[in-house]
Structures are given as structure tokens and as C-alpha cells.
Design brief:
Elements lengths: L2 H22 L9 H47 L5 E2 L2 E2 H23 L4 H19 L4 H22 L12
Antiparallel strand pairs: 1-2
Helix pairs in contact: 1-2, 1-5, 2-3, 2-5, 3-4, 4-5
């Protein structure tokens, strides 16, 4: 697989996962729904592939902060695929989302600091990372939580479209 193909696969995963994340912001969560759990697993796996491709495309400029962001968000996505268990007194979904938001925020700051990657996506992820915890802390802030999910998904859609841009010098297209 060439880098070009990897970036296209990651872009497809980012747009698909991000778009589906936006859609699920409007669906009431039901832990008993096998179909909904399968949809969430598809989203999480798509976004895991997306963050890998985004980091690889920007690794030379985002460096160690980007790598740590990839590691944290990737670990978070991997930990929430499937049912959301509470084991050993620990809520793995809450831990996974914390890792995802921390990692994607770190990656977003690396993008903003270096200009590598999609700056609009970075701002969308940071806004989501602020709104998500606020929505989780206040039970009546459902619209805030919904908006956080929409912004998070939109960040991946925008980043996926950025991944489709040609690599190398601006204006030159690789065959």
C-alpha cells in the first residue's frame, strides 16, 4: 500500500466516521440496541483509522505532541469499541472518551502550532473538547452534549477532506 492509498483510506474513514458521528448525535442512546452498538463500533473503528492517517500525514511537523495525541486518542477509540463495561470499578467508556478528547486536543494544538494538518478541524475538535465535558457535568445540558458530538464529527469530516489534498508542494498534483 502506498502513502497515497493510506491517506485516501484514512480520508474515507474520517469522512464516514465523522459523518456517522454527526448523525448519531440526533439518535437517543439505547444500550440494548445491537444495531446501534454496531454503528458505534463502526464509527470508533473508522475514527481510529482516521487518526492514524492524520498523524502519519503530519508526523514530520506535529512530532512528539502529535504522536502522543495519536497514542492517547487511538487508545481511547480502541477501549470503547463494543459494549461499555464497568470493570474493576472503572467506567471504560468514560476513560476512553477522556483519552480521546485529551489526545485529539493535543493533536489539534500541534496542528495549530505548526500549521500542519487541517486548522479548521483542529478548532472544531477543541470546541468539542470544551463542550463535551460541560455537557457531561450538567445533566440538563443535552443540547451542549449534542453540539459537542456534532463538532467532533465535523472535525473528522473536515480533516478527511484535507487528507484528500495532494501531498507535497501546493498546486502540484501527484499522479
Amino acid at each position: 500500500m502506498t502513502a497515497h492509498h493510506l491517506y485516501r483510506l484514512s480520508a474515507f474513514a474520517a469522512v464516514t466516521g465523522g459523518g456517522l458521528r454527526i448523525v448519531t448525535s440526533f439518535i437517543s442512546y439505547s444500550p440494548e440496541s445491537v444495531g446501534l452498538e454496531a454503528l458505534y463500533a463502526l464509527i470508533d473503528l473508522s475514527l481510529l483509522i482516521a487518526v492514524i492517517g492524520l498523524y502519519l500525514r503530519t508526523a514530520d511537523r506535529t512530532g512528539i505532541p502529535g504522536l502522543v495525541g495519536l497514542f492517547l486518542s487511538g487508545t481511547g477509540f480502541a477501549s470503547i469499541v463494543g459494549p461499555d463495561p464497568v470493570m474493576l470499578g472503572m467506567n471504560f467508556y468514560a476513560l476512553g472518551t477522556f483519552l480521546i478528547l485529551t489526545g485529539i486536543s493535543l493533536f489539534a494544538f500541534a496542528v495549530l502550532a505548526t500549521g500542519a494538518g487541517s486548522v479548521p478541524a483542529a478548532y472544531l475538535w477543541l470546541a468539542s473538547s470544551v463542550l463535551g465535558p460541560i455537557g457531561s457535568l450538567f445533566p440538563h445540558a443535552t443540547m451542549t452534549l449534542m453540539m459537542a458530538g456534532i463538532l467532533f464529527g465535523a472535525g473528522f469530516v473536515v480533516a478527511g477532506l484535507w487528507l484528500l489534498r495532494p501531498t507535497g508542494h501546493e498546486g502540484l498534483r501527484s499522479a
